[in-house]
Every structure is written in structure tokens, then in C-alpha cells.
Amino acid sequence: MQTLEKRGDVKDLALADAGKSRIEWAASFMPVLAQIRDRFEKTKPLAGVRIGACLHVTTETANLMLALKAGGAEIALCASNPLSTQDDVAAALCAHYEIPTYAIKGEDEGTYYSHIESVIASKPHMSMDDGCDLVTTIYTKHNALLKEMIGGCEETTTGVIRLHAMEKDGVLPYPVIAVNDALTKHMFDNRYGTGQSTLDGVVRATNVLIAGSTVVVVGYGWCGRGVASRAKGLGAHVVVTEIDPRKALEAAMDGFQVLPMSEAAKTGDVFITVTGNFHVIRKEHFEVMKDGAIVCNSGHFNDELDLDALEALSTGKTAPREFVESYELRNGKTVRVLGQGRLINLAAGEGHPAAVMDMSFANQAMAAAHLAQNYKTLEKKVYSVPDHIDEEVAQLKLAAFGIAIDTPTPEQVKYMASWSEGT
Predict the structure, then answer these.
(1) Hey, which CATH number is domain 2-185+352-401, 3.40.50.1360, 3.40.50.300, 3.40.50.1480, 3.30.710.10?
(2) Whole-number Cα distances in Å, 113 to 76, 103, 118, 136, 187
(3) I need a labelling partner for 218 at 20 to 30 A (CA). Which of 259, 288, 313, 411 fits?
(4) Where on this chain does NAD(+) bind (predicted)?
């Protein structure tokens, strides 16, 4: 662990050159964010704004930080998950880009929260969260800072759920833009990003053959859709479990077998949770799993799995591979948990491809600028990304792909806005 005064807390600054190279590589796949960065360099929409960011410290996040800095922001960054940090990237942000970064892959819970405190010590005007830990820590422990805070952005489904709960309870401390709700975020990042990176994480951790196996996908939101389709593409028999009848019906019509978890637990070879909910795989499910079943999570928090119950069912555990813990159950079977039940795509892999994070982080950057310019007119509510931002991100991405689309004629515009045309 290496610390530089006012520069952050990272594993090893000697990794900085390798991290810089990988940040630049990711940038080559993020043309939308690059255009926004160029625009920010000229217009400085975040001049004088201190941003406290609690995000996965990856190459893609680094490019977001550089865009925000180009826009005039002062930034302090920490990890939003103990296993999601890329240590070389954290080192590069400190050493090459002078962005204070507090993140070490594998940090314990105490260090994780001390790093959040380090970001809070920068006295941010704006929060940028992935999971809502920064917002809740500020609200519960640093209420005095709120008078200077103008708003925040939230990246992921789990965090948006927590923010809506805060709003419902009347304790949301400032306006927050739910970046996750942008169509150019959840339709692409959640589906294509999570789908690819989750299976990549599973394979990196285990080298298991997906073809011919039964993969149980727990939850059929946008992330679940992506994981299920990618597992099917690799040749798996896919089973979906759901609590929402509409999503269960959609999964069935998409060609997947739909079962309650009590039944799916008996048949699965690989289990992947993507619900944003609590203890969706529990004691009664672990007890009936096949010998050697693989269990992992691609939702934000590891409490989607009841790991305490699994510990109680076990006589011991071994670590046969770097990201695998094999629990020896009293019934003679083993259950293999990947990445300590944390985000498997970041624990064992590199997370989403840069090309899809390009859109998500373009939304983040533009949402931050929107907040800085409009916070005085916003209430303490959770807001969706404004449509004009979402649409512009899509247009820029299409242009980057070299794809042209039609423009409606004046007659079509009039028709779409009229009620008088009939049969």
C-alpha cells in the first residue's frame, strides 16, 4: 500500500505506467466520452465544482474522471466495491493525472469505508455514486456538509433503489440524477455489458465449460436478460427465476425455462444472481444443490447470496483457485462460491467493455454538467436523465459506428403530434 499526501491511497505506485497504457487503450473505444471531454475542455461547465466519486476504479472510470477534470471539476475518487479496483489504474490516476484516488483491490471493510471518508474529506459539492454508499455515509455521518452540496448522480440499479427509498422516507438530502435510468445506459450497459462481462468473469475464475451446462439466472431485468442471452449463446441450457410475473412471462416467451428457485436449485450447474435484492439464494437452496455447483453474483452487493447460511451449513472451505471458495457441506456435497459473492465481472474480470461504458459515462458526465447548471431549480428528488441528453448520447454513438438514420418529414412530425387524423 502506498500513500501520497493529498494524492490518494493505492496498492503500488510502480503500477502507474501500466495503468496509464490501459487507460489510453480504453479511451480508443470511448469516442462519445472523448467528444464530451473535448467540449468540456472548451466550455468548463464544472468549473469550481468539487466532485466526490465512489465508483468502480477501472480504465473506463478513469476516462470519465479525465472528462470531468477537463470540465473544470476537482475530483476525489474511491472504490464502490472492495474487489472492483484495478490497482494499476488507481496508481495511474494518482501519479499521472493527479486525481486523488483511494482504492485497493481486496481492501477490507474498514479500509473501504475509510476510503469513502477520505473522499468526503474533500468536501464535495456533488456526489457520483455506484451503489449509494457515498450518499448514505454523507447523510448519516456528515450532515453538516449537506448545506454546500448541490446534487448527485447514481450509476446502478441497486443505488437507484436505495435513493428512491430515501426519497419515499423524506430523507433524500439533495437532487440526484439516476443515470441508470437512461435508455442508453440500462439497455446497453446492463444488458450487453453485464451479459458479456459476467460470463467472462465466470470463465476466468473457473475455466468451466458453459456449453451443455445448466445456468440458472436469478432475475430477468436488463442485466438478467443480458446474462441469459449470452449463456444461451455459449450453448447453455438457461433457467430463469423471477418474482415479477411480467418478467417471468417475458423470459418464458424468450425461450427460457422459468422455475421457482426451490426447483431451479436442484438442477443448476452455475447460478448467477442479478436482482439487486436480498438473500435470493438461501439456506434451503444451498442444501439441495448438486455437488460442485458454482454460485456467483453480478448484482452490486454480495448480500444477494446468504453466505452466512452457507457457512453454517459447512464443515470447512478451501480455495482451489484464486477467485473460488469451495464450501464443504455437512451433507457431503460442495458448493463453489466465486469472488466472495461480489460482482464477479469485476472481481475476476475487467468489467464491462469500454465501448458500452462509453455511453454510460457520457451520460454521467453530461448529467453532472446538467446538475451544475440547473441545481437551483431542482427539488430533493430522484430524476431521470433528461431525454435530450439520452438522445444526444445515442446520436453520438451511432455516428461513431458510422450509422445513419432517417429524419422525419415535416408531415410526419405534424402527424405524430396530431389527434385529428383517423381511419
Answers:
(1) 3.40.50.1480
(2) 14, 10, 9, 12, 31
(3) 313
(4) 156-158, 190, 219-226, 242, 277, 298-300, 345, 352
User: Is 409 labeled as ligand-binding?
Assistant: no
What are the φ and ψ backbone dihedral angles of 390, each rounded to 5 degrees? -55, -45
The one-letter code for the residue type at 126 is: M
339 labelled binding-site residue? no
Asked if residue 105 has pLDDT above 70, the reply is yes
Cell representation of residue 291: 455437488
Cell numbers found for residue 270: 452455475
Is the model's pTM score more than 0.90? yes
- 130 annotated as belonging to a binding site for a ligand: yes
48 is in an annotated binding site: no
| 85 known ligand binder | no
Question: Which tens digits make up the pLDDT trace of 121-163?
Answer: 999 999 999 999 999 999 999 999 999 999 999 999 999 999 9
CATH architecture assignment, domain 191-347: 3-Layer(aba) Sandwich (3.40)
223 annotated as belonging to a binding site for a ligand = yes
Q: Is 155 annotated as a binding residue?
A: yes
Residue 97 marked as a ligand binder: no
402 labelled binding-site residue: no
Check whether 80 is labelled as a binding-site residue: no
Is 221 annotated among the ligand-binding residues?
yes
